[in-house]
Specification:
With 379 residues, the chain is an alpha/beta fold. Among the domains are: 22-77, no CATH class; 93-234. The chain has ten helices and 16 strands. It has helices spanning 6-17, 26-33, 38-43, 74-87, 117-127, 247-250, 267-271, 296-303, 320-329, 356-366; strands at residues 60-64, 96-100, 132-136, 158-162, 165-167, 181-185, 188-190, 193-195, 201-205, 217-219, 225-229, 255-258, 283-287, 310-314, 346-351, 371-376. The strands form four sheets. It has a seven-stranded parallel sheet with strand order 1-2-3-4-6-9-11. It has a five-stranded parallel sheet with strand order 12-13-14-15-16, covered by helices on one side.
């Protein structure tokens, strides 16, 4: 007959009750809390005495209306977050702040600038030395992001703004000396300019300018990469007929990806008339705009890039017949450009398949006497 030790039972029972998670260092527990929504993180104070005040110094704050907040009122959420911010440890910093939710109907048709507390939360994040800030609201056509003056921070490095309407004062980042990454998505830009001395990466996608508004000016002298994707309302009809709109500001870049998604966005082709010299450009990627309706875009960029080392053409199936017929009618376009960078040793062509237009492009590139690498893509 088997006999079990009472001491063994006691040891196993004690092991089952042991809270090993609470024994982890504060930094590890703060990291775990960073994956939770703000309301979930605060509820951890009920787990044990060890967790009672951990939420007050967590380094990542996520404010959104998912889960239990989905059916709550704006007033409740405002009071909760305001209390959370007031009760936080004033000496703790916030590495990342995410603000994302759908406000209620009372603000949809008002002219008061939308939820006023959003600006307060943002200012608190900046005062807590947040390095990453994400702001996403909905119904962007109905309100302006309510902020008083430009953002001011010596710590903010990455900013993501989505689904809001932005005024000029918000887009002046002159007082954000460490900001290097800015992502603006699905916004209405009611502004004349974007200013930043430190910005290195700028992405503007799915955004629109107010009807009949003046063109926005982007002043970012230290920019390394720029993405302009699905921009609406920027057709260039403001009398700017004697110089570059975009290329002049990119003329000192070392790496460029010039991808145009809408045929009516003719800024690339228009700028070729006053194309500057890209004296530092070593890596260049272009899509089908540079070979439509002929190869003039490709030729111009090659002639103005004297130290180019890597060239990639990314082609899709759009406009195949039209492009092929136009090239066929202009055999002179298949001649090698007079000047091409002596550093260019290989050209990469990415395409879905070898069709008529790709054949025309390859025939033209073969006149360069440079190696061509073809890569098949899936659309």
């Amino acid at each position: 007959m088997l006999h079990t030790s009472t001491a063994g039972k006691s040891s196993n029972s004690k092991s089952s009750r042991e809270d090993r998670i609470s024994d982890l260092p504060d930094d590890v527990l703060h990291h775990v809390l960073g994956f939770l929504r703000a309301d979930q993180a605060v509820r951890t104070c009920l787990l044990a005495r060890r967790w009672r005040h951990l939420w007050k110094s967590m380094r990542c704050l996520r404010i959104n209306d998912m889960g239990s907040w989905r059916k709550s009122t704006d007033v409740f959420r405002n009071k909760f977050i305001s209390c959370l911010l007031l009760l936080r440890d004033p000496g703790s910093t916030l590495d990342e702040v995410e603000i994302e939710y759908n406000y209620s109907e009372e603000y949809h048709h008002s002219n008061n600038g939308g939820p006023p507390w959003v600006g307060i939360w943002i200012q608190h994040a900046l005062s807590s030395r947040a390095q990453v800030l994400t702001v996403k609201l909905t119904e962007r056509a109905y309100f302006y992001l309510c902020l008083y003056g430009p953002l001011i921070s010596q710590y903010l490095r990455r900013l993501e703004i989505s689904d809001v309407r932005l005024k000029s004062s918000f887009l002046d980042f002159s007082s954000c000396s460490e900001l290097v990454d800015l992502n603006i998505k699905d916004c209405t830009l009611d502004a004349r300019r974007i200013l930043s001395q430190s910005l290195k990466h700028l992405s503007i996608s799915g955004c629109a300018f107010p009807p009949n508004g003046s063109r926005i000016r982007i002043s970012v002298p230290n920019l390394v990469s720029l993405q302009l994707i699905k921009i609406a309302g920027c057709c260039g009809n403001d009398g700017h007929n004697d110089g570059c709109i975009l290329f002049e500001g990119l003329s000192h870049a070392k790496n460029l990806e010039l991808i145009q998604t809408y045929p009516q966005m003719f800024i690339f082709r228009r700028d070729l008339t006053w194309c500057p010299i890209f004296s530092n450009l070593k890596t260049l990627l272009m899509n089908q705009w540079c070979v439509q309706p002929d190869f003039s875009g490709l030729v111009c960029m090659l002639e103005h890039s004297p130290v180019l080392e890597n060239l990639t053409l990314q082609l899709c199936k759009q406009g195949i017949r039209k492009c092929a017929s136009e090239v066929e009618e202009n055999p002179g376009l298949l001649e090698k450009p007079p000047t091409i960078s002596g550093y260019l040793k290989i050209i990469k062509v990415k395409c879905e398949g070898i069709d008529d237009r790709v054949c025309k492009v390859l025939k033209f590139l073969s006149t360069f006497g440079i190696e061509i690498a073809i890569q098949r893509t899936n659309g």
